[in-house]
Amino acid sequence: SKGDPKAAESIVNQLCAGCHAVDGNSPAAANPKLAGLNAEYLNKQLNEFKSGARQSPVMSGMVASLSPQDMLNLAAYYSAQQPKPATAKDKELALAGQKIYRGGVQGAGVPACASCHGPQGQGIPAQFPRLAGQHGDYIYAQLEAFRLGNRANDAAKMMRSIATKMTDADMKAVAAYIEGL
Ligand code: HEM
Ligand code: HEM
After folding, report:
1. What ipTM was assigned to the predicted interfaces of this complex?
2. How far is Cα 75 from Cα 36, in angstroms, rounded to an integer?
3. How many whole angstroms from 90 Cα to the centroid of ligand 1?
4. How many domains does the chain have?
5. What is the tens place of the pLDDT at every residue in 100-111?
C-alpha cells in the first residue's frame, strides 16, 4: 500500500510540526529536517522507532499510537515537502569536510559519502537517505550514534563500519559540509 500525504495532515499538525515544522524544514538543530527525504527511508525509520530497532526516547513516544498506514502517510507527506536552500556556517571546516564527502579518508578506509548519498547529497532511493542541508549537529550526533552502536538497526551496518573509522574531527568537518550542501 502507498502513503496518502493529505491523510497525514492532522497528525502532522498535532504531533510532528512542533519539532519538525509543517514544511519539514525543522528550525532546531537537534531535530532533523525531513523535507524531501525519500518516503521509503522515512517509513522505515518510523517503523524502526516503533519496533525499537532504532532507539530514540523522543521518537518512540511519538510513533507509539501510529498505525502502519499512518506512518506510510506521514512518510509520503514529508517526502513531498520542499527542502529549503542551506549554507554552511563554518566555511573552512566545510572545505575540509568536502574532501571527505567526495573522496573519503585516504588510508583510514573511509569511503566517499557521495558514493551512497549522491554527489549533491540528494540520496539514492530507496535505501540511502538525502543528507543535503541537514543540520550539522544532527549529522554529527548520528555519526556518533553509529560509532557507539546506539543506532544499530540493520541498514545502519554500513554506517557503523564507516563511523568507527572516523575521528571526531572528520565527523565535525563532514557535518559542516553537509549542512551547506
Ligand atoms: C527523528 C518523524 C515528532 C524529535 C525523526 C525521524 C523521523 C521523524 C522520520 C528520523 C529522521 C531521519 O532519520 O533523518 C517524525 C514524525 C513525527 C515526529 C512523523 C510526528 C508523528 C517529533 C516530535 C519531536 C521529534 C514532536 C520533538 C519532541 C525528533 C528527534 C529526532 C527525530 C530529536 C532524532 C532522533 C535521533 O537522535 O535518532 N522524526 N517525528 N519528532 N525526531 Fe521526529
Ligand atoms: C545513513 C552520513 C557514507 C550508507 C546516514 C546518516 C548519516 C550518514 C548522517 C543518517 C541520516 C539521517 O539520519 O537522516 C554519512 C557520511 C558518510 C557516509 C558522513 C561518509 C563519511 C555512506 C556510504 C554508504 C552509506 C559510503 C554506503 C556504503 C548509508 C545508509 C544509511 C545511511 C544505508 C541509512 C541507515 C538507516 O537506514 O538507518 N549516513 N554516510 N553511507 N548511510 Fe551514510
Report:
1. 0.98
2. 10
3. 26
4. 2
5. 999 999 999 999
